[in-house]
Records
---
Amino acid sequence: MIDNLDQIFVLFQHWLISFLPSSWQPAAAVMLSVAAIICLFPALFALTTVFERKGLARIQNRLGPNRVGPFGFFQPIADGIKSLTKEDIVPLSADVAVHFLAPVLLVITVFMGFAVLPMGRNMVLVDLDAGLLFYFAMGASSELAVFMAGWSSRNKYSLLGAMRAVAQMISYEVPLIMSSVAVVMISGSLSLTKIVEAQNHYTWGFPHWYIFTPWGFAGFLMYAIATTAETNRSPFDLPEGESELVAGYHTEYSGFKFALFFLGEYVAMFSISGLGTTLFLGGWSAPFSFLTWIPSWIWFFSKLMLSIFVFIWVRGTLPRLRQDQLMNFAWKFVLPMCLVNLLVAGVWRFMGEGLLRWVVCSAILIAAYAGMGVAEMHKQRLGPRSYRYAE
Amino acid sequence: MTPLAGYLLVAALLFSIGLAGALTRRNAILVLIGIELMLNAANLNLIAFWRYGPHPEALTGMMFAIYSIAVAAAEAAVGLGLVIQIYRHAKTTDLDHMNRMKG
Amino acid sequence: MSLVFYILSALTVAGGLAAVLLRNMVHCVLALTVAFAGLALLFLNLDAQFAGFAQILVYIGAVAILVVFAILLTRGSETSRDGIFSRTWLAGLAAAAAVFAVLGWAVLHSMRQLPHETTVPDVTVKQIGQLLVSRYVLPLEIVAVLLTVALIGAVIIAMQEKEESQ
């Protein structure tokens, strides 16, 4: 019964396609999974918008939307109706074809990433041998859509926002990929299902998730920083900061196209959090061995929503980074730490089981972090905090 | 027409389109675009021969293509850096105007 | 010669043609991106998964964006008043047509002697990895040095020099 609950979606899919002739069945199975993904993640997006607004509001000591429905939870319906019925204004001098295609390309490449995420036991759409490479290829293609949006609007603010966004996304692409390479090294495969299966073992009840190792913890932190920057979330949201650039590269978009950009950004957040849980947090595996009776897809989505909650929390807490500060941070701090992390992962792998490797790896990482932190802050001459009061 | 011949013809067509672009356009950046098309056509040739040739398990064609992609990326970076610097010096990217060595 | 091959090659060739014929430079780059995507799909059709995804990641994710940045930094959107084709366009076109004629003749003439295995090769990323560090380790190291040199060189070449004269 527990196994059936775990595989309930797979069994449901098999039951549905059993009504079709057998030559149509593989295509129908794929179509069904694709339809499920396309329906599920925008629904999660709607829920996340209201969570975000209420969460940010509570952090800022106010209430957030509370008029539409119980505690404001029907707010996304109102937002959806608004954005669908707003007039679609295209600037007169804009490049109409590129202006139209930019949000389309963004949404397409963002949804393609879900094809390789294992959302439960046996619940991956395509089990590619080079799944992680496919995911990063789709992530890299979404940058071009951002540039197209900014350039086609023929607006200096849009172009500036687009250039900043693309520069930021390219800079943080390298730490993103490097922190995943450590995981690939240890698990020996680029296939995401094999990476999850390598983490699905338990010692004394504790799971073998990669985040519970020194290199995995450092890798996860750097992955988290890189994903916050890749999806243009605060504190890396200078490209779309309202006080800086009107609205950045989606200034000239209104109505449904703006809703598509918004959807693309949030769905990118989901997919990259999904990848983070697959790589570091064990994907669909349960945290303790006595909890494996809870279905695997519940664990995956709980970890996903936990990551989204942390994104919202960080957005409400930290101030925005300036463009040169964020580029400096990427190239001069995060990238060297990623390289040290790769070294530490290699040391971990070849050192053999035991306490010694924990101590050595943690020592190398902490020394590198402290050393680089001191080196970066040395130039800034920051002393203890001093207050000046008005006379 | 065998599948391999089809792929080879597509690669030849793409190569000559890239060559035409590199030879006939004025802008220096479009010459680089033509060169990238030519490199891609060669990659397609390599992969097609790997797939339909003897001993595909030796992966020679695929490795060659992967190295070619890496080298093409490096060459595009350096080439575009050069174009940017030339633009700063000559204030134009028009190749017909850059027909002297004297600065 | 399947339908998928025809559609993909039509897409790729159309992208390539648009990339060299369009007037607006950014449209040219976007058409080039379509050509790259078509080529990646052709690689996938040829069962070369790693090469196809690497093509998307490197070419569309990096080279296309590089070209776009270069266009924006050199104001490529201002087209020269003499048109988009150079003075010697006819010679260039003739050379390209001659090259295509020679290559096409070579392919069609030797079609019977071309190899034609139809077994799908079973290639995994693990094999590629093992080959990279065993048989192809020297090219790997040389490419690493090359990329470092290209990185440093591109930065130095494109760096703005200090003004010597006012």
---
Amino acid sequence: MIESRFDPVIHAPARLQLCALLVPLQDAEFSILATELEVSDSVLSKHIKQLAEAGYLKPVKRKSGGRQRTWVSLTTKGRKAFAGHVAELQRLAGMG
Amino acid sequence: MNNSQIEPEEAVAALADIDHMQTVAGGISEESRWTKVAVALIAGGLVATTMAENSGTYVAILLAALVGVLSSERQRTGTSARSHSHTRSGRIALFGVILLAVALYAGGIVLRDLAGWSWGPLLAGAVLAATLIGVTWGTASEDQ
């Protein structure tokens, strides 16, 4: 059962898009996220940090091809919060 | 921010944004057709070779190939799609593939040991690979 709950941490447009992009994925690489969200690396870093501080995202640094890359995934807490936020949006939109 | 500040129009726009981003995620994490074919062939190969004598080496090679294919696809797309086993339809599909593989494995053994057809295991592996290729190719065509 999903608890409908508005989440101000998730609702900011870039963070909402970031969470929506990550929901169907196990994880995604930082540069792919920046490209798809059409934001700069510094802006994306700021949003990832805010979501990570809330316990919604988990950034992991891995070395690949001699380069350090950051992979980002939603935590279980993040998935629950996002589902609750979507349920609340649906309620507000008169769909729920 | 309080939700009393959110108008229904803003909620509708946010939901549309969410739908769009989830479609984008589906597109960027979509495996190439050749990856799907490679995985289907490896799965068929596993069914065929597990019936062979001294199958350990073949199975190890095929599992290493599977890891290689999946890892290379992950590097190519920069993403990994979430397993579908958390959804009801995903669990049904997974159960169906396992059931088919077990049935083909048993059929391959029956053909080889009881009917004396030494190509029974190969046929079982080929049927599984062809089925998986058909299903994934058909699904990809529908998506396009």
---
Amino acid sequence: MTETALLSVEDVSVDLPTPRGNLRAVDRVDLTVGAGRTLGIVGESGCGKTMLSRAILQLLPKKAKLSGRVMFDGQDLVRLDPERLRKLRGRSLAVVFQDPMTSLNPVLTIGTQLIETLQEHLELDGNAAKRRSAELLAAVGIPAPEQRLMQYPHQLSGGMRQRVAIAIALSCEPKLLIADEPTTALDVTIQAQILDLLAREQRRRHMAMILITHDLGVVAGRTDEVAVMYAGRVVERAPTAALFKNMRMPYTEALLAAIPKIDAAPHTPLPAISGRPPDPTRPIQGCSFSPRCRYAAGQCHREKPSLAAAESADHQYACFHPIEIAARVPA
Amino acid sequence: MATLELSIGEEVAVTQAPRARRLGPLFWAAIGWMIFVFAAAALAGLLPLPSPTDMDMLERRAPASVLHWLGTDGLGRDELARLVYGARISLTVGLCAPVIGITIGGALGMLAGYFRGRFESLVVGSMDVLLAFPPLILALAVTAYLGQSILNLTCILGVLGIPAFMRVARAATLTLARREFVIAAQALGATHARILLRELLPNVFLPLFAFFLLGVAVTIVVEGALSFLGLGVPPPISSWGSMIGEGRESLEVAPRLAFLPAIAMFLTVLSFNLVGDSLRALTDPRQGAL
Amino acid sequence: MMQVTQPSPSHDPLLKVENLVVEYAVGGKTIHAVSDVSLQVARGETLGLVGESGCGKSTLGRAVLQLRQAVSGRVLFDGQDLTAMHGDALRQMRRRVQLIFQDPIASLNPRRRIGDIIAEPLVISGVKDPERRHELVCEVLSAVGLDPGLVIGRLPHEFSGGQCQRICIARALVLNPEFIICDEPVSALDVSIRAQILNLLEDMKARFGLTLLFIAHDLAVVKAVSDRVAVMYLGRLCEVGPSEQLFAAPAHPYTALLIEAIPVPDPDVRPAESVPVGEPPSPIAPPSGCRFRTRCPRAGQRCSDEVPELRQVAPGQFVACHHPLIAAG
């Protein structure tokens, strides 16, 4: 892929001052997303994935300090003036959050929320906006869309609300959609439907997408590229197939092994990762994963490995003792 | 193959944000004033002050002098002494009345929020009825029927404060009673009394106490207003409110007679408000995960 | 080493739920949370109870413990009817059945120290000697992998989710119960911590000889720890059977749908285009007959007229369906 990336996150760091000291939520992250491609960002709580998405959208809390560049469609979002940034958000850059109950305004009808987005960015008049809203709701699979326009969020189920949130996000034909744990709060059957919907719409609109999740299963089938985050840094990045087949980072391997598999026999002991994710206010000397890593050796505790590619240019990882392909523990 | 976490060590060493940093200088100034006023009121008898009831008709509305540090009032009584003894009244009523409120109102609120159902409707309904009474009329009726005295005043203001405390306690209990730790206690076979006292009360207490301090502030003002109208403490006992009332007549000649008690009341009420607010802020959930 | 005790058919089941119905009113409408559910748990086994949100599995768990009033039906624990017990007798029984919740941090009183929280069950059940209590608390904390010295004096907010869940498990174990109901014990935890807690539960089960009712919505998690699995939908049981068998060859279309929807962490497995089966109906007005019929590709006329009963279709496997995927044997 030699086309210039639609989104390029360059050396981005986010620091948050807290009463307990400085918190490095995101530590020098580099990422790219090409037009029409899906990037999956995988990590557990506290790894910085949500802060990263906020950094891309320039929606960080006031106290946060951001360094680095976020190049979107040729413009650096960090240095863009607020008015132009506001016009960009919602129009070319859209977001779907985890909890649709809090991302939708509970006191406004669905219709109002859709229409105001359309009017703001596309400058449609009332009737045209209303028609388009009904079309959008139908496109995301909501039955009886005209009636739904009059309803309030609490009258819809969780899955429906998330579809509405997606409709609002897609209403202005964005070039990039950031989906932050869009299905974590939903049941597994609804989850599959929502992910299918996102994939379908993405293909139709040739839209780029960043799918943030903690579930490796979600990433496996629905992304082109995956970045694994741990303690604020990207620790492995590769095309999806390559990541699962040739994972190099012990954390990725451990994460995959710790998930109970549906085809495993009952009572199979799960290879759990000992310890727990590090406290971001206490940076660890050396590799952040070293206290929990079964392969850790002396160097790992002293120096931080940097993200580098070895055999193939598009598979990068940050580890001094990457898993050799021959010695890889079967998942 | 269980993984053991035997040593938590530094992982758990939490340095709580030093509380002192969150309570600014304003908070400590308020505490300082409160201590000062309390001390003065408590030790009034030991202080080298002339009696607040001694009338010196030759020295009426006299300015500040060595004998009378803040001068005298319209009847020749020492102003400073009256202020200090007035503090006693204001603080006594101001503290005791909300105590009635917090004990009765707090208990009713917790029981209503925990047991719900018809009991709750009964409690909330009767509180609504109480709130519907114009408080001033009620105060008038009681003083007219039972006579003016500090005790009556305290009881009336206490009873009038019960609905507010009931509301606060009930709201806090409602949010807590559904939390899993209460269900866990029930699953363990704890009796209702144990759950109310051991699980709910420690959590409800802090917001209730913060409200109590605000209640003190309000009560001082209300008592002041009633005394100002002549419905509060009977003469010759002085409270800040009655002093303001008496000072009205001397506004052109000696405005300090009205302003000094007003300033004292203002500072005291402000202090209680500040401390109450700070405590309320502290009862917010501790820093959540980032 | 973990020993899994197979349920012995000659022993009576430790827990027997008979025709349990739980309903409650919300704003004038009635929610039919649990409708005529019967199941059994044998001594020493783990029964997994799986279903999506709103299916009533949590309500069932609480109703078994008499934390929710059942409209009708019986719950027999070791032969004694819990629904008929009150006051002290019920409190005595509670010592033998414990509960672990989904949100570990919310399950602990934020203003009490861990030592007090874990000692609470001992106090309630009358262990008077503080030394003895301290001894038992330390013992059970070590069993769940926490250092008592570092934990006893602290408050819950000083611990992570995984550690809090260990504390909750310790609290559940301190009275040496026979039966533990786990209500979504790992759903709120990170992936890497989940595995730890699941392993811990298996360990504790073997060590203390427990019987478990494991309620969850994640099928893979349920399968990993259960001997038998029961699938619930909108207040009714769809299917019950041994774990391996049920997942290998599900008989109920809903079970099949659930299995298919699980995202598999293998990039070669392309997720099947999900059939748009719509949203689950509301428990306020559940469909007549078989409640799954509005989303079932095999639904027929009989499904709306007649409520399907659980029938055996394979050894140990029962399904409530008029058109099961495996024909009745």
